[in-house]
Amino acid sequence: MKRNTSFSFILLFSFLLAITSTNVEAREPFACDSRDLNTKNFPFCRTDLRFTDRVNDLIGRLTLQEKVRLLVSGAAAVPRLGIKGYEWWSEALHGVSNVGPGTTFGGEFPGATSFPQVITTAASFNATLWEEIGKVVSDEARAMYNGGQAGLTFWSPNVNILRDPRWGRGQETPGEDPILAGKYAASYVRGLQGTHDGDRLKVAASCKHYTAYDLDNWAGVDRFHFNAKVSKQDIEDTFDIPFRSCVMEGKVASVMCSYNQVNGIPTCADPKLLKGTIRDAWRLNGYIVSDCDSVGVFYDSQHYTSTPEEAAADAIRAGLDLDCGPFLGVHTENAVQRGLVKEAEINSALVNTITVQMRLGMFDGEPSKQRYGNLGPKDVCSPAHQELAVEAARQGVVLLKNHGPVLPLSPRRHRPVAVIGPNSDVTVTMIGNYAGVACGYTTPLQGIGRYTRTIHQPGCENVACRNDALFGGAINAARQSDATILVMGLDQSIEAEFRDRAGLQLPGHQQELISKVAAASKGPTILVLMSGGPVDISFAKNDPKIGAILWVGYPGQGGGAAIADVLFGTHNPGGKLPMTWYPQEYLNNLPMTAMNMRSDPSTKYPGRTYRFYKGPVVYPFGHGMSYTNFIHTIAADAPTIVSVPVGGRHRSNTTTVSSKSIRVTHARCNKLSLSISVDVKNTGSKDGSHTLLVFSTPPVSGGNWAPHKQLVAFEKVGVAAGGVRRVGVKIHVCKYLSVVDTAGVRRIPMGEHSIHIGDVRHSVSLQPHTLGVIKI
Ligand SMILES: *[C@@H]1O[C@H](CO)[C@@H](O)[C@H](O)[C@H]1NC(C)=O
Ligand SMILES: *[C@@H]1O[C@H](CO)[C@@H](O)[C@H](O)[C@H]1NC(C)=O
Q1: How many CB atoms lie within 10 A of CB 722?
Q2: Ligand 1 pocket, residue 670 CB under 6 Å
């Protein structure tokens, strides 16, 4: 008995080995294997039919039990129809990641290109770069899928607004501005999903976590229990914007709902959000997935329903198509039997998930014979991909301060250089969270070592920096060197998923180390900060001994090379902060649980983000210097009046038209835009890239709840030393010059809007113009 068992184990083991090794060569088809004579002729396998007919054919063949087992991320096989099991959960936030069980590294795929964390990439303000990264990541993802080591459904990007600076997951996001986040979402998703193949998908992305989710675990409140109380106004003009852009402009194949409740309803059980907004208003062509186990969470932790069957039914009836986790697989059949949800509603969910699988080619037989079927190990971690990771980091570096200027350093004059700090020789710290296994690393110390001789001292054991035991060595190194570079900041032990920060200052004794080393340093001192969220470094900003400060976010696998290229001037920095850097005192009247974006003078609540907070900052949103200077001039032909056509199907209403603002739904918005040309002149002696940030301030008629300024466009341009570039900026009037009133209605304020770029201002007057009135 025993011997037999071990014998069959060995057999089974060699069988598994055989399967695994063939998998590395070419993945077995998920379904519709051309060698399987029983199944390959099913209509759902026929690539000459339309997706809808194929999907309906397949669903018509499934029993209720089979259907229910397809509602979960670990979807079961349907062997009698030749369909294999599928793990839906893979991640690719900034490179193929193994955070989800759908992806594994090893064998022919030991690693994947690990790009900078998203907050760093966002700082580049370069939409071309975002799409380019998406393309590379999806090449690597397809290659790993072909090799049997990844899925095709990736639950990235995270486009929640970085509303509160303490948020542990702020690093994953493109920052605090909704327009920036929306543009990032659409660009990265287009890169991932591919755009040149009709309805077909290269991989399927997912924008998450819908919505008003940006609290993980703060002062005893966690995301599994948090009820975010959000006004209609904030939903419409802040929280919805990146998701709408992701769905409508990025054409994303999926949206994920969050753990938290919004106004008392778990987002994954809210038909107004899922069916009403995502599916009907934005017309999602794809599936809605829960955050992992969030259906279980609203039953078990939030006690939102009294039975698990009701929880399952509520989620499906709200519009949820797929559960990350087992809950729907366990409880949905009983829910149907109790009449809480209809089988037809389950069919609708499956239409959404299976259509995405069809669009991915999963029902087209052998992956190797399909488009992207040729991608393999050679396409992962290729030199070009790794170089793009370094380039992304270069573009994301933000020069916060350069007094003197002390930067760039010179490899000849600055020799040796002291390289100090707990982040000076790190690897995994540079890739942040939701990362994979990197192809390899260049640490800051290694990067700087390519330019000059270094003396290395950690200064603190780790970022917590609990004591000053290692200060002496660091101070000595600074005394002996021609320049001192301190690489400090945070890592995942300080800010992470389920770990929000309590304050904004550097941890432990870091500040003390920086000040002491700067005071002792023979040459200039440069502070390099790694962090996802903003840090209150007022002390360093104000310290004349600290000549320069760089923020590098989490700069990815090649981060050290990029940092060194900026420090030594082979790359001229052009990154800009995608979030406000607040002083610690900002937190005095700011519970993380308070969702309001707008300030409230009666409670001293300061308001959030540059759009609504007017108090002191350490560095503002959009701050970032260069080794050269750029000046802007708005071309003389910029319009000063734009008339907004009102009418169409709405009844002539003198009150509406002559009032101070026009409802967007009453205006003829199509192609109504404001075009201005801006000349950007590089007056310095170095070539550089410059991001034009165009803000608008609405007239007082916008109401006192309007943002005092709003980013309406941004454009990145390279300008040679001494050169000028003309940049055309087009501002869609209804989208960008409108404001949202307290009822959540979007209106275009009439009167003088101020458009500003740096110090340059331009006024444009919006005036109503009645036309095409149909009297009823
Ligand atoms: C016309 O304006 C009045 C006053 O603001 C408002 O009550 C009414 O609903 C408007 N009618 C239409 C058709 O917009
Ligand atoms: C934007 O990124 C792309 C891709 O890396 C790069 O080729 C381009 O030069 C960047 N644009 C500017 C203005 O720096």
Answers
A1: 13
A2: no
**Residue range(s) defining the domain that contains residue 653:** 628-770
Q: How far is the CA of 657 from the centre of ligand 1 (A)?
A: 10
C-alpha 285 to ligand 1 mean position (Å): 36
DSSP state for residue 154 in the 8-state scheme: B
What b/e string do you get for 117-128 counting C-beta neighbours within 10 Å, with b at 16 or more? bbbbbbbbbbbe
Q: What is the CATH number of the domain that holds 703?
A: 2.60.40.10
What per-residue confidence (pLDDT) applies to 761? Answer: 96
Are 691 and 736 contained in the same domain?
yes
The residue type of 29 is P
CA angle 740-695-554, nearest 5°? 100
Rounded alpha-carbon distances, angstroms, from residue 322 to 271, 295, 371, 400: 15, 10, 27, 44
Residue with the smallest CA separation from ligand 2 atom 9 is 718
Kindly state the helix (H) or strand (E) to which residue 313 belongs, with its residue range. helix 308-318
pLDDT at 97: 98
Report whether residue 656 contacts ligand 1, using a CB cutoff of 6 Å.
yes
Q: How far apart are CA 644 and CA 641, in angstroms?
A: 10
User: Is residue 391 assigned to a domain?
Assistant: yes
Distance CA 494, CA 115 (A): 21
Instruction: Output the pLDDT for position 197.
Output: 82
Residue nearest (by alpha carbon) to ligand 2 atom 5? 129
Q: Cα 731 to the chain's mean position, in Å?
A: 24
Contact 694, 755 (CB under 8 A): yes
First to last CA, the chain: 89
Residue written as token pair 């500040």: 511
Instruction: Evaluate whether 84 touches 138 at the Cβ level (below 8 Å).
Output: no
Low-confidence residues in the chain, pLDDT < 70: 1-26, 648-659, 771-776
Phi, psi of 404 (to 5 degrees): 125, -65
Strand partners, 732: 673
What CATH number did the domain enclosing 414 receive? Answer: 3.40.50.1700
39-92 pLDDT, tens per residue? 888 999 999 999 999 999 999 999 999 999 999 999 999 999 999 999 999 999
Q: What's the length of the chain? A: 776
- Residue 294 and residue 186 in one domain: yes
Of the candidates 556, 691, 693, 623, which has an alpha carbon nearest to the alpha carbon of residue 120? Answer: 556
Q: How would you classify the pairing of strands 254-257 and 287-290?
A: parallel
Confidence at residue 651, expressed as pLDDT on a 0 to 100 scale:
52
Nearest CA to ligand 2 atom 3: 129
- Residues 226, 261: contact at Cβ < 8 Å? yes
